[in-house]
């Protein structure tokens, strides 16, 4: 399924790559409509949603917070230990997340829209886009950033990396690449250059 209106850029990168910082620059500096698949993944498991009950039926009340909302850390710990459980969860949630994404993208008013997803390649969401932008960093830097940011063990970060597309797989799907191994100013410069390129593409002008 391809969405041609508006022009959709898929933005992805592994955990700790800086894709959220890149998306924020597109949104705040250039007023680009951003749809975040991570946010949509939270919406579909809100209390009262059928998916949350199915998750509880599968994993028990241990994956719930005291207020009845999903304990994402507890669930993540379970599914990243057992591949079959992770696949079950993905089969449940990915179609629901896709529906939310499609609805939000259709409302975009900017010249192009950005679909931000850590699983853009693995989930097939890249097929909803006209172009794929990868924020790329060395694995060692991903691990260092994520352990510092989230205060989680390195082993857990490595398990998440194993569940995500390998760096080479993402780069094979990439039309454009931001290398985020320097400071925030360097990231912003790359985003600003790509914004001008995407404006030209979305309006049919010669880049």
Automatic annotation (TrEMBL):
Report the locations given in the UniProt record.
Cytoplasm
**One Gene Ontology term from the biological process aspect of the record:** coenzyme A biosynthetic process
**CDD domains recorded:** DPCK (cd02022)
User: A Pfam family matched by this chain, by name?
Assistant: CoaE
Recorded superkingdom: Bacteria
Checking InterPro entries in the record gives: Depp_CoAkinase, P-loop_NTPase
Q: A Gene Ontology molecular-function term? A: dephospho-CoA kinase activity
| Gene Ontology CC, one term | cytoplasm
State the family named in the UniProt similarity comment for this chain. Belongs to the CoaE family.
Please name the NCBIfam families in this protein's record.
Answer: dephospho-CoA kinase
User: What protein does this entry describe?
Assistant: Dephospho-CoA kinase
The gene designation is coaE
């Amino acid at each position: 399924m391809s969405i041609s209106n508006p022009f959709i850029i898929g933005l992805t990168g592994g955990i700790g790559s800086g894709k959220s910082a890149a998306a924020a620059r597109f949104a705040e500096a250039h007023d680009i409509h951003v749809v975040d698949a991570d946010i949509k993944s939270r919406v579909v498991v809100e209390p009262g949603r059928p998916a949350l009950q199915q998750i509880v039926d599968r994993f028990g009340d241990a994956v719930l917070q005291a207020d009845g909302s999903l304990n994402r850390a507890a669930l993540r710990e379970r599914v990243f230990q057992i591949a079959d459980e992770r696949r079950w969860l993905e089969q449940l949630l990915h179609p629901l997340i896709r529906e939310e994404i499609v609805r939000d993208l259709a409302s975009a008013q900017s010249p192009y829209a950005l679909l931000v997803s850590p699983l853009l390649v693995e989930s097939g969401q890249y097929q909803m886009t006209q172009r794929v932008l990868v924020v790329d960093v060395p694995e060692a830097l991903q691990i260092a950033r994520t352990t510092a940011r989230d205060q989680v063990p390195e082993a857990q970060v490595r398990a998440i990396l194993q569940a995500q597309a390998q760096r080479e797989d993402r780069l094979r799907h990439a039309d454009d690449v931001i290398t985020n191994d320097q400071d925030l100013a360097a990231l912003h410069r790359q985003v600003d250059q790509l914004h001008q390129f995407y404006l030209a593409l979305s309006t049919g002008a010669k880049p």
